[in-house]
Amino acid sequence: VILVNTCAIREKAAQKAYSQIGRYKQLKSKRPGMVIGVGGCMAQSAGEGVLSRVPYVDFVFGTQAMHQILEMVDEVKEKRRQPVWVGMGDDPATMEKLYAHSSSQDGLKAFVTVMQGCDNYCAYCIVPYVRGRELSRPSDDIVAEVRRHVEGGVREVTLLGQNVNSYGLKGGDGADFSALIRKISEVEGLKRIRFTTSHPKDLTDELISLFTSVKKVMPHIHLPLQSGSNAILEAMNRRYTVEHYLMLIDKLRKEVPEIAVTSDVIVGFPGEGEEEFRATLDVMERVRFDGLFSFKFSPRQGTRAAKMEDLLPEEIKEARLAVLQDLQREHTLGRNELWVGRVRPTLVEGSSKSGGGQLKGRTPENKIVNFNGDESLVGEVVEVKVTRGGINSLVGELA
Length: 399
What we know:
CATH architecture of the largest domain: 2-Layer Sandwich
Largest sheet: 5 strands, mixed, barrel
Radius of gyration: 22 Å
Strand content: 15-25%
Structural class: alpha/beta
Number of strands: 18
CATH topology of the largest domain: Transcription Regulator spoIIAA
Strand order of the largest sheet: 14-15-16-18-17
Helix content: 25-40%
CATH class of the largest domain: Alpha Beta
Shape: globular
């Protein structure tokens, strides 16, 4: 059985998925008993279209059918059918079955889904159509899962959701996101709490205050900007202004002056002229993000932006993306170099990819730091003095 889990956030991701599926065609012709299933967001969006494009696929499962994979495999083998399960709903019992398959553990770190779906309907985004509406898990279930991870050796959890700030608005058990974090912080043995992604329109003063009032909450936030132009933000249906975004940055840095802020930006959205693009660069200069995920606008069928006119030529989008990424590299390096000479409590995660027998750790600000040390330190929080800052990571030594 081969399962291909797909993404649909951009057209390029969908094309990569089809390319990957195509690699299995010849293999399956040599092994007739092989079963190929395609799931995830692209499968949810395309449905029967997956079978039309790649008919040698045996079944298609959407974002709310992961817990039914074994049943689909049996259906393929016993009934020789090609089931397509892409239904969506908001039944809490069904959702809880999904949550059992949505979290993951990687050594000392675990990623725990606290909610599914999104109600924001940004003009460019396909997520609400393939992940469904927002639905939160009961806080007690989440805390119990975190506790199980910690008992298994986890020291850091990252709470996941399309917009974690709106946790508890639909579903759950009455706790909002701040209350959820406070409950999780009481789990013994857990050293660090992170969360992503935060929507600027829902970031509250109470949540900002947790960066200092709850010591386990790490000083890093991913806060997507998307554009530095109010006109483009309105066209995107982001429901905040540049001024509001900058106010949030000021509040965050007043609460925690050295907090790391990362973000997302889209260039080339329909209607983005040179003035709007320069406005985005201006905001970047003002904020100086620690890191940035940047993309060219990619129209997704079924979204509002796919019907917009005033599309930009590909070469303009590519040129703007290059300018933006060059600027961000300067900012990332500058932000990382600020830590040189400073000592940071670092969670030792394992061997460094840089080799040389070094260890890799992560600072509270989510910076990777490589340093010499004994493997017995893995899993411990140690003091590391930063000696050099690079674009991708820091270099340090045990303090």
